[in-house]
Amino acid sequence: MSGDVHVLVDKTEVYQDGTVARIRILSVPVSETFDDGIKYAFHYGKASSDHPIIRFDNHHGTHELHLGVDTYECEFPGVATLKRAWRSALPFDKRADW
Torsion angle, CA of 35/29/50/15, rounded to 10 degrees? Predict the structure, then answer.
């Protein structure tokens, strides 16, 4: 990883039912692609699936919400707000981990 990129959060939980939850937040240089200086992913899905149950990310600079095979461009209200939205979509018994 470049010296200008810093891992702020990198947490993964693997569950007995075959699902995985992960939050990864990086501080990156401010650029045209990452104008907030943040690259993030809030992921929850089946470990064996190519499509998440829910994921917020900006891997390509565009803020996106992924629901299964569907992808929607979304606003960026801030990392804390996205985390709350993502956490509220998790099954109730898994929310305490986050």
Answer: -110
Residue with tokens 């981990």: 97
Q: Contact 16/91 with Cβ under 8 angstroms?
A: no
| SS3 of residue 29 by DSSP | coil
Q: How far apart are CA 4 and CA 16, in angstroms?
A: 37
Residues 18/47, Cβ–Cβ less than 8 Å: yes
Per DSSP, what are the bridge partners of residue 26?
7, 39
Name the amino acid, one letter, at 93: D
Rounded to whole angstroms, how far apart are CA atoms 91 and 98? 12
Residue with tokens 């600079």, as numbered in its chain: 61
Full-model pTM: 0.93
Q: What is the mean pLDDT of residues 6-33?
A: 97
Phi, psi of 50 (to 5 degrees): -80, -15
Residues 56-68: pLDDT tens digits?
A: 999 999 999 999 9
